[in-house]
Amino acid sequence: MTKSILFVGVGGQGIILASKILTEGLIKFGYDVKMSEVHGMAQRGGSVTTQVRFGEKVYSPLIGVGEADVLVAFEKVEAARWISYLKEGGSLVVNDYEIYSMPVLIGQEQYPQNTLDELKSKVENLKIFSAAEVAQDLGNIKTQNIVLLGALIKALGLENLDWEGVIKDNLPEKMQEINIKAIKAGMNI
Amino acid sequence: MRKIMSGDEAIARGAYEAGCTVAAAYPGTPSTEILENMAQYKEIYSEWSPNEKVAVEVACGASIAGARSICAMKHVGLNVAADPMFTMAYEGVNGGLIIVTADDPGMHSSQNEQDNRYYAPHAKVAMIEPSDSQECKDFVKYAFEISEKFDTVVLFRITTRIAHSKSIVELKERCEVGVKEYKKDVKKYVMIPAHSRVKHYEVEERLARLQNYSNNCPLNRIEWGDKKIGIITSGISYQYAKEVFGDSASYLKIGMSYPLPDKMIQKFAKAVDKVYIIEENDPYLETYVKSLGIECIGKEFIPICGELNPDIIRRALLPTEEKKSYSVDVKVPSRPPVLCPGCPHRGLFFAMSKYKDIIATSDIGCYTLGMMPPLNIADTVICMGASISAGVGFKKASEKAGRDSKVFGIIGDSTFFHSGITGLIDAVYNKAPMVTVILDNRITGMTGHQENPGTGKTLMGEDAPIIDIESIVKAVGVKEENIRIVDPYKLEETQRAVDDAYKATEPFVIITKQPCALIKEVQKRRANMYCKINDEKCKKCKACLRIGCPAIAFKNGKIVIDRSMCNGCTLCQQVCKFDAIEKVGE
């Protein structure tokens, strides 16, 4: 059975690194994996997605509407933007974090205030927390992407695999300790 | 050894394993990572060329010298490079020659959605299309063999989802083929009309042989499943088709898409009840299949515009129930890409925004984003290098109409080297009193920081001469008194230059010099710098919001600057009339 994970957020939030570590881990644990990411203009502060699909044999790297088993939103209105991709009964992980887009910053559009309430009232399997606060408590706010990855791994039920080893294989030595803490903190939320 | 690789990485690996010796490219999404990855293989000479035409010509020369050679570009890059490709199709090769075209269905980072498969029949060269990363690697080897066996250029066509999707690849050792001997052969390599006339016959004859090969080669294969539906498909569309139909259909998977395997298609079509053509963008396969007199279903249900995905195919071709999902009652604001916090382009655009009547003919790069509110600096964007030349035309037409249009052509350093220099020559030679602004941020920015002729480094990490933009501008003939070099982080200085340019009656050039805020060394150097609001002094006039910096927001009745985003460029401080913004760190 193929599983589909959609990462959504804003260019520059570290989505690609989080999905890369997930992908490397899934391969290490014996899955066929396809991952698709967006480069170029969209990365400049725009809404970005990374898609990961894994299972015994995967064909399409893309996830359609109503097909994601897990949706991980690195920013909360991005959760609302992409919610239609989450399949009924799927899990939603939301970083309680706001990034205003330019139309909001210059007053052309409003940043909605009801996002979390709406998500809570509609989605059953839902985890909302501030990855930034967790990462800050660990000592490096920049690890919030790995905290979110930890929460995703828990949502997938894959927390018993050797993710510490995966981090060690894929990050430079000086970044390993803090990111191992981050991924574990994410799994324990 | 197995490794997860993007299609781009796998193409580089394939070239390495196939004994390729020379590789050249100009960066362009989604092709950029091919050469970025090529550079790790020291057996291959890899270069960033100033533009795609140069890259193809470098590869052509290397092939004639006897080396297996590859060049890569995004789809629109092949327009620039079409000239050498069309003639090289006549000359043929010595060492195998591959031209990679990376198309961008969905236009994730492109100005049009052209389908470059048509280039193969147009130029009369073989074409190959892989469907995943493993095939990217394997097909490069086939492509070199086909190129040498049939004495042809091979067009290697991928799309964004092949280039930037990752899947598992089995790695092998490099097969050293060396550089073949070069023998002078003017009838083959000097295309004067007398030689070309002979060559055209050879090209036609070669296509017939290639078609025979296409009918019998392992790149095209039939996968039998249920025979009620037979699907003809290629590239990423094959993966989507498999995802949707699984074993409930048979597949003719095309890997060599020019010349197409006519006999194989006929055999396949006869064996199935109904033929579906599943392909992205234009009806390239469909038109050919129909020309064989075969009835098929394709673009009447599957859209030409935009990127394909399994969902679209499912809805188009199968009776499907809507997948159950969620919806929320949230008014989601749009989130277009923007100039980064600390982007050096912002200062120039802000200075220009004082004049509401400037016509800005812009170009391809991060600075295209100057078009977004609140800066709104761009009237036109066409293609790489068009800023200056389109500005000349706009100015000339305006003069004829008796309009005093102030035309500013906006171009980045890498784009200037790519194809802006000729435009500037045109402006000087034909006396177009327009302004050219060259935004020199010391890097090729939008594609993710590649070296260029102005950066002093090559793709392979060697030191290189810095091609000096100011010297070029002077050499082209722009008068010294009509050149301004400014630091765009300094608003007053930048504004003065824009004011002078606005009044100019001769070709005028502003060069802004400040490195991209995302360059690693710049980030390190400015890591402790940021600006903050002094709440007591802030009158909430929101003047600072007019520079369009994503780090500055009006939240909960206060102006705030996000410290993690700010790099202390101080543009906001310079526009604040109440001294309410302070800079921290040096």
From TrEMBL, chain A:
Residues covered by the Pyruvate/ketoisovalerate oxidoreductase catalytic domain: 11-187
Gene Ontology molecular functions: oxidoreductase activity, acting on the aldehyde or oxo group of donors
UniProt xrefs under Pfam families: POR
Keywords: Oxidoreductase, Pyruvate
NCBIfam families given in the database record: PRK06853.1-5
Protein name from the UniProt record: Indolepyruvate ferredoxin oxidoreductase beta subunit
Species this chain originates from: Caloramator quimbayensis
From TrEMBL, chain B:
PROSITE patterns: 4FE4S_FER_2
Name of the top EC class for this enzyme: oxidoreductase
GO molecular function, one term: 4 iron, 4 sulfur cluster binding
Annotated catalysed reactions: indole-3-pyruvate + 2 oxidized [2Fe-2S]-[ferredoxin] + CoA = (indol-3-yl)acetyl-CoA + 2 reduced [2Fe-2S]-[ferredoxin] + CO2 + H(+)
Enzyme Commission identifier(s): 1.2.7.8
Assembly description: Heterodimer of the IorA and IorB subunits.
Protein name: Indolepyruvate oxidoreductase subunit IorA
